[in-house]
Design brief:
Structural class: alpha/beta
Strand content: 5-15%
Number of strands: 8
Number of helices: 11
Shape: globular
CATH class of the largest domain: Alpha Beta
Length: 394
Amino acid sequence: MEQRGPLFASAAAASGEKFIEAPVAYDAILLASFGGPEGQDDVIPFLRNVTRGRGIPDERLEEVATHYRHFGGVSPINEQNRALKAALEAEIGRRGLDLPIYWGNRNWDPFLEDAVRAAHADGHRTLLAIATSAYSSYSSDRQYREDFARVLIDTGLGEGDDPVTIDKVRLFFDHPGFVEPFYEGVRVAVAGFLADGIEAPAIRVLFSTHSIPTSDAERSGPRDVDWGEGGAYAAQHRAVAEHLMARLAQELPEAAASDWKLVYQSRSGPASQPWLEPDINDEIAELPAQGVKAVAIVPLGFISDHMEVLWDLDNEAMASAAEAGLASVRTQTPGVHPAFVAGLIDLVEERLHGTPASARPALTPLGPWFDVSRPGDSENVRLGFRPAAAGILP
């Protein structure tokens, strides 16, 4: 199917406006996530799905598989999504909203195709998606929108006189509900170091997120804005980190002299391909020479404690801190924190009610982010532009 315009979207979103400020009668929510294996036999087939089209042999996949095998072949992400789905359903019930939630993954069962088919079979046509990613990049935003378009094309449910449409809530990197759990974690960690007698200048806060190819980072976010190094992806993380540290200094003045840095983790590309840096472990190794004695590791790019948090931070980064002789704490992810759960349903209600952009909460100057992705947003350099829902061509 040729994408002739902003197809696969509700009539309001198909207008192409940045913000949908008219009510839309969504009849179901689609919770979209990455997926993960749930047993040793699932690990390699799952990793094949993740790397489809790249020609990576199983021998190389097995190097990554060791992370999952360390935990019995089970990624925590599916169970975390079950918990998030249940928490969202409880919040929906508390608010008296009649919106069922269908959960589907990109790379493992339950797949998005099955979730959309189930919603269609139950009579739902106007879906609003919540993806478990908060920031701009290909894999965390546009790829989900491509997933939605692919599913609607492959199943045929996006065609005909009564098509299924899929819109997407705005990116929520600076929504108060997403940010609050991180602030709580930073404050507890830094206050704990201070209580242990470590002075603020000797405390470093490292905000960690998934590294991505520099070429993809440069294409994250709308093209008509100069986002600086790392594109909108890095700019969004920096803006949230700045907010958190400014709030910390205001509410805990004795912590004001603590410094911070945005760092990256979990790179998986070839050494010849530039990815965002610095790596968190390299940064930790340099801290003692800077007079740092304690480090708070904040998983700012992550929704929950999935594999990159459990392995790359709790295992590798914490080991790096111990080797450097640093006191260290890894702070919490949002998970099913009440503020986060309520915030996600707030985003749903924004679209149900057509809340004006001027009335939408955002904690950084970059927000609130758009409802309808802008032209050229988050291009994948290798794949180019493919049909995508909830945006304007290309």
